[in-house]
Amino acid sequence: MIEQAKVPPSLQPLIHASKVNKVFPNGCHALKDVSLEVLRGQVVVIIGPSGSGKSTFLRTLNQLEPITSGQIVLDQVDLTDKHTDINIVRKEVGMVFQSFNLFPHKTALGNVMLAPMKVLKQSKAEAQKTAESLLQRVGLADRMDNYPSRLSGGQQQRVAIARSLAMKPKALLFDEPTSALDPEMVGEVLDVMKGLAHGGMTMVVVTHEMGFAREVADRVVFMEDGELVLEETPERFFHSDHPRLQRFLGQVL
Amino acid sequence: MQTQSSRWLGHGLYLVIMAVLISGVYFAGQKIDYTWHWERLWPYVINTESQDIVAVTDGTAVVDKSGRLSIQPDYGDDPQIIDVYDTLVSRDGDLIFQGDTIARIDGWRFGPIAEGLWVTIKISFISLIFAVLLGVMFGLMRVAHGQVWRNLAMTYVEVIRGTPLLVQIFIVYFFIGTVFDLDRFTAGVAALSIFTGAYVAEIVRAGIQSVPVGQMEAARSLGMNYVQAMAYVIMPQAIKRTLPPLAGQFINLIKDSSLVSVISITDLTKAGREVVSGSFAPFEVWFTVAILYLVVTGGLSLLIQRLEKRLSASD
């Protein structure tokens, strides 16, 4: 990012993806020249039909999905450079999954404490203190000792968010965090996410929750067929007369 | 849903069928021309006959006031002192020759069957530990990213699973044992652990692959490296899932250990064969040997069930 060298780091984009291409081994061209910039503290919501590549793109941002060509720079670290230690990058970018992926053999508290203890080498007491306050923050102070199997979907997803936050990430990636939830639990998870957004967390969210996009997002991105079709502020996005977006919104709303 | 009464009916019916079967075996045993001598078996399990204490040199017996027996040798060596005995055979001042019985000690010691049982438990337990180590190592290699690891592990599993254990024992003892100068016990342990390790590797591989992909992704996205993710997230879950098939494999290991008797390790089976020729009570011996195997395998099975229960706390 030579052209940005004179800009102070705090004003540079935290996440900078440029011309990202992903071709799966079976020949499927999942991402076609996708570029996106996310500034510090911004919330970017990605919407699009299933199979549009939005989840794949999100997963490239912490290299869970290696890319075929292009460049992804995260806080001035080039993820696509093969000399970059990807584990160091990953602990600075949290990820929340559609299916929660809590560790079933650990309690809620244990789930949140594991990575800080093993990766950040925190002491047990220190990790526990952080974990307790995070679980309190997501409204689960009374469920800390429960195993995931004893928690509802909404509670599990909130534990998953607390687990990501325990690593003190610079940004959080959400991969359809409410899609696997019963309708009555969607609200509790979205509330936690709104709280994070208002607290200044940088977030990239793949979701079908248009209300969330309208209310919280700084920018909304529409993807289709592996292409980034449209990127706008929420007001302009939802009033856009782009034909492909219109067709999609007509199907989901 | 089963009702309570039909469950009890089932238990009752089971007991009746078992009673019929067992009495059938009993009457069949009565009908054949064979005299049962269960009592002959006891000395081979636990020997309660008193043991002789033998003099090690020529000398003179000395019994002091406290009753302590010692043999004062003729030629200036240190005296042989016997502190613990139950019956005195020699008297104070007796002339003793090397090999004479000077006292007897009561109590019991293990007979060949009990010693064979101990060898079986020992060889199974040591082999089990090595089999688990080999199995986990090769199981991890089977799911590793490097093709060379996967090929190596596959070769190990296929070669070992594709050849009979008896042949492997012969090869390990006569060929590898000769090359590396192994004693029979080590050769037996090596053959059993290599054999069982191949099956454990397949069980471990299946266990790891049964853990959802999302678990690895979640662990990696928290910044854990592959080894940490395996150690703290994948393996703890995989082990829980593999316990039932592992229990079966460990029970097989205990039973397979009977094959090491072909390289003259006196395990429970070989002890049985020896006792048959000494006691002339083959039926009793083989029934006893079978029951002892059942006790060991049953104990292990019970142990693993309890472990499973403890690990299921998170279900």
UniProtKB/TrEMBL annotation, chain A:
CC per GO annotation: plasma membrane
Family membership: Belongs to the ABC transporter superfamily.
CDD domains, per the entry: ABC_HisP_GlnQ
Molecular function terms, GO-annotated: ABC-type amino acid transporter activity; ATP binding; ATP hydrolysis activity
UniProt-listed Pfam families: ABC_tran
Keyword annotations of the record: Amino-acid transport, ATP-binding, Nucleotide-binding, Transport
InterPro entries listed in its UniProt record: AAA+_ATPase (IPR003593), ABC_ATPase_HisP-typ (IPR030679), ABC_transporter-like_ATP-bd (IPR003439), ABC_transporter-like_CS (IPR017871), MetN_ABC_transporter-like (IPR050086), P-loop_NTPase (IPR027417)
Coiled coil regions in record: none
Span of domain ABC transporter: 15-250
UniProt membrane topology term: Peripheral membrane protein
Keyword Transport annotated: yes
Compartment(s) where it occurs, according to its Swiss-Prot or TrEMBL record: Cell inner membrane
Matching PROSITE patterns: ABC_TRANSPORTER_1, ABC_TRANSPORTER_2
Protein known as: ABC transporter
UniProtKB/TrEMBL annotation, chain B:
GO molecular function annotations of the record: transmembrane transporter activity
Keyword Transcription: no
One Pfam family per UniProt: BPD_transp_1
The keyword Transmembrane helix is annotated on this UniProt entry: yes
GO biological process, alphabetically ordered: amino acid transport
Keyword annotations of the record: Amino-acid transport, Cell membrane, Membrane, Transmembrane, Transmembrane helix, Transport
Free-text function comment from the UniProt entry: Part of the binding-protein-dependent transport system for glutamine; probably responsible for the translocation of the substrate across the membrane.
Name listed for the protein in its UniProt record: Putative glutamine transport system permease protein GlnP
Species name: Marinomonas profundimaris
